[in-house]
Specification:
- Helix content is 38%, strand content 21%.
- The strands form two sheets. Strands 1, 2, 3, 4, 5, 6 and 12 form a seven-stranded mixed β-sheet that branches. It has a five-stranded mixed β-sheet with strand order 9-8-7-10-11, with helices on both faces.
- It folds into two domains: 150 residues, ATPase, nucleotide binding domain (Nucleotidyltransferase, domain 5, 2-Layer Sandwich), CATH 3.30.420; 174 residues, Nucleotidyltransferase, domain 5, CATH 3.30.420.
- By secondary structure, the protein is an alpha/beta fold.
- The model has no long low-confidence stretch (mean pLDDT 96).
- Helix 6 runs antiparallel to helix 10 and helix 10 crosses helix 11.
- The protein contains 13 helices and twelve strands.
- Bound molecules: adenosine-5'-triphosphate and ligand AH0.
Length: 374
């Protein structure tokens, strides 16, 4: 008998919505189907505007975007179900990450804000929806992020021991798994700064295969200036976001390099992402035997090559261990919803820095309430 969950993820790259339908029966994790709904350019711009730390925003814009994204998340689920010909009744629950508009775990009143109203998802699809998955961990003094390390441990440690998983989305995060401990934290920028820079200079959404970065030359002075940022020196637990590694961050750092060709800046940003990931692997996972990569950055061949050059051990894709690298985050949120409905903790509290394991999220019942599927 199948045990079906849907994971919904929209990450810091603001590219669109990932929806994964996952079967967890027999303690397995099988991706049955996947659907991706890309955001239009104008929607991306409006979301970017909402998550600019320096700009005032209207509460009305915030509220209507919460509704608009809730509807888009629901639409994505319906499109996914249509593909599979499965009914809403056959799905146990949806785990919805929402879209992070601001992450401030270190502020005086720490918070992490995800939007995409889960009431609308549950009402429209009829499926019980688990959402708001970060704030319970923050309430327990944690960072509220990253949350995927618990899933990485649960799934990938069946196949391996002594390894790292690196997710390279807008922000990059790492999970270190060995016999003695499991660690997980954000290493810093993944693709977000490279995406910004190529959008500004070449009007492209991302640096396809890393070809533009490869065409430039790394500037060692600028690289040192980037790496000088205090975030990289912080000990875990730590997490960050694109409100910190922002266009302002980059523009401020490159101010002193007005003559530098734009492709050299891209090359230096790519090196920064690679080096900060591998410096953390060397520091926190010195005896790891393999690094598995997932997230959109795995398609940036130049970046993956730089990572592999920096490491002494092999670098592979999570696809080699059963999960397509573009699916891992959505699958993890399906798993987190299941954890919550099973009354199990979802946070790896030593990774997030919380003071205890926590059952994460709010539950928005589907058409059948909480007693049955859907
Ligand atoms: N072919 C490609 N070549 C280079 N980079 C790519 C390619 N395809 C995707 N990417 C990069 O991957 C990014 C999307 O990655 P992903 O979907 O994992 O991010 P996310 O889930 O939004 O982020 P996060 O994990 O931080 O929440 C794109 O913005 C782009 O920078
Ligand atoms: C606040 C927030 O949305 N953080 C994201 C982001 O994207 C990557 C990294 O920064 C990670 O900390 C997290 O996402 C993954 C899914 C996580 O929580 O594990």
């Amino acid at each position: 008998m199948s045990e079906l969950y849907i994971g919904l993820m929209s990450g810091t790259s603001l590219d669109g919505i990932d929806a994964g339908l996952v079967d967890f029966s027999d303690d397995q994790c099988r991706v049955v189907d996947f659907h991706y709904l890309p955001f239009s350019e104008s929607l991306k711009q409006q979301i970017r505007h909402l998550s600019q730390p320096e700009q005032p925003i209207l509460l009305a814009d915030y509220g209507s975007m919460d509704t608009r994204l809730g509807r888009l998340f629901a639409e994505t689920v319906i499109a996914l179900l249509k593909k599979t010909a499965l009914s809403a009744e056959s799905i146990n629950a949806i785990g919805s990450h929402g879209l992070t508009v601001f992450h401030a775990p270190q502020s005086r009143f720490p918070f992490s804000l995800q939007i995409g109203d889960p009431n609308i998802i549950a009402e429209t699809t009829g499926i019980t929806t688990v959402a708001d998955l970060r704030r319970r961990d923050i309430a327990a003094q944690g960072q509220g992020a990253p949350l995927v390390p618990a899933f990485h441990q649960s799934f990938f440690s069946r196949h391996k021991e002594n390894f790292c998983v690196v997710n390279i989305g807008g922000i990059a995060n790492i999970t270190v798994i060995n016999k003695d401990c499991v660690l997980g934290f954000d290493t810093g920028p993944g693709n977000t700064l490279m995406d910004y820079w190529i959008r500004k200079n070449l009007n492209q959404s991302h640096d396809r295969n890393g070809d533009w970065a490869r065409s430039g030359t790394v500037n060692p002075l600028l690289l040192a200036q980037f790496k000088n940022d205090p975030y990289f020196q912080l000990a875990p637990a730590k997490s960050t976001g694109k409100e910190y590694f922002s266009s302002f961050w980059l523009e401020h750092k490159i101010n002193q390099f007005p003559e530098l060709p734009s492709e050299d800046i891209q090359a230096t940003l790519c090196q920064l992402t690679a080096d900060t990931i591998t410096d953390d692997i060397s520091q926190y996972a010195a005896d790891a035997q393999e690094t598995l990569i997932c997230g959109g950055g795995c398609h940036n061949h130049h970046l993956v090559q730089l990572i592999a050059e920096n490491l002494q051990h092999s670098v592979s894709s999570t696809g080699d261990y059963g999960i397509n690298p573009d699916h891992v985050e959505a699958v993890a949120f399906a798993w987190l919803a299941r954890q919550t409905l099973l009354n199990q903790p979802g946070n790896l509290y030593k990774a997030t820095g919380a003071n205890a394991p926590a059952i994460l999220g709010g539950i928005y019942p589907g058409k059948k309430g909480l007693s049955g599927k859907g």
